[in-house]
Write a structure and sequence with these properties.
alpha+beta, 2 helices, 5 strands
Length: about 90
Amino acid sequence: MMAAPLLLAACASSGPVTQLDKDTYMLTTSSRWHGNDGVAILGLQQADTYCKNLGGRMRVVGSERSEGVVGFLPPKALITFKCDKVS
Protein backbone atom coordinates (compact mmCIF):
# COMPACT_ATOMS: atom_id res chain seq x y z
CA MET A 1 0.00 0.00 0.00
CA MET A 2 2.83 2.41 0.67
CA ALA A 3 4.36 1.82 -2.76
CA ALA A 4 1.50 3.54 -4.63
CA PRO A 5 2.06 7.03 -3.14
CA LEU A 6 5.78 6.68 -3.74
CA LEU A 7 5.21 5.76 -7.38
CA LEU A 8 2.85 8.68 -7.88
CA ALA A 9 5.26 11.08 -6.23
CA ALA A 10 8.00 9.81 -8.52
CA CYS A 11 5.90 10.87 -11.52
CA ALA A 12 5.73 14.46 -10.30
CA SER A 13 8.45 16.90 -11.20
CA SER A 14 9.38 20.33 -10.07
CA GLY A 15 11.99 22.79 -11.08
CA PRO A 16 14.42 24.27 -8.62
CA VAL A 17 13.27 27.06 -6.34
CA THR A 18 14.35 30.33 -7.94
CA GLN A 19 15.04 33.38 -5.81
CA LEU A 20 13.39 36.48 -7.31
CA ASP A 21 14.16 38.98 -4.54
CA LYS A 22 15.59 39.02 -1.02
CA ASP A 23 12.78 36.89 0.41
CA THR A 24 10.65 36.09 -2.66
CA TYR A 25 10.89 32.80 -4.53
CA MET A 26 9.25 30.95 -7.39
CA LEU A 27 8.86 27.28 -8.32
CA THR A 28 7.08 25.25 -10.99
CA THR A 29 5.60 21.78 -10.49
CA SER A 30 4.00 19.35 -12.91
CA SER A 31 2.67 15.80 -12.82
CA ARG A 32 0.93 13.44 -15.19
CA TRP A 33 -0.74 11.62 -12.27
CA HIS A 34 -1.95 14.47 -10.09
CA GLY A 35 -4.76 16.63 -11.44
CA ASN A 36 -4.62 20.39 -11.62
CA ASP A 37 -5.36 20.76 -7.90
CA GLY A 38 -2.92 17.99 -6.99
CA VAL A 39 -0.10 19.73 -8.83
CA ALA A 40 -0.82 22.97 -6.98
CA ILE A 41 -0.80 21.11 -3.64
CA LEU A 42 2.56 19.52 -4.48
CA GLY A 43 3.99 22.96 -5.22
CA LEU A 44 2.63 24.44 -2.01
CA GLN A 45 4.10 21.57 -0.01
CA GLN A 46 7.49 22.06 -1.62
CA ALA A 47 7.39 25.83 -1.00
CA ASP A 48 6.40 25.24 2.62
CA THR A 49 9.26 22.78 3.12
CA TYR A 50 11.71 25.20 1.50
CA CYS A 51 10.73 28.02 3.86
CA LYS A 52 10.77 25.77 6.91
CA ASN A 53 14.33 24.76 6.00
CA LEU A 54 15.21 28.48 6.01
CA GLY A 55 13.54 28.89 9.42
CA GLY A 56 10.58 30.81 8.04
CA ARG A 57 6.93 30.46 7.18
CA MET A 58 5.71 30.29 3.59
CA ARG A 59 3.25 32.90 2.28
CA VAL A 60 1.88 32.64 -1.27
CA VAL A 61 2.01 35.93 -3.17
CA GLY A 62 0.95 34.63 -6.59
CA SER A 63 0.13 31.50 -8.53
CA GLU A 64 -0.74 30.35 -12.03
CA ARG A 65 -1.98 26.97 -13.20
CA SER A 66 -2.33 25.31 -16.57
CA GLU A 67 -4.54 22.29 -16.98
CA GLY A 68 -2.42 20.66 -19.64
CA VAL A 69 -3.67 18.21 -22.26
CA VAL A 70 -4.44 14.62 -21.20
CA GLY A 71 -1.81 12.26 -22.59
CA PHE A 72 0.26 15.08 -24.06
CA LEU A 73 1.09 17.86 -21.59
CA PRO A 74 0.83 17.44 -17.82
CA PRO A 75 -0.86 20.12 -15.69
CA LYS A 76 1.54 22.67 -14.23
CA ALA A 77 1.51 25.12 -11.35
CA LEU A 78 3.78 28.14 -10.92
CA ILE A 79 3.90 29.44 -7.36
CA THR A 80 5.46 32.68 -6.17
CA PHE A 81 6.00 32.84 -2.42
CA LYS A 82 7.77 34.64 0.38
CA CYS A 83 9.51 33.12 3.37
CA ASP A 84 8.45 35.28 6.31
CA LYS A 85 10.54 35.24 9.45
CA VAL A 86 8.98 33.42 12.38
CA SER A 87 8.92 35.56 15.55
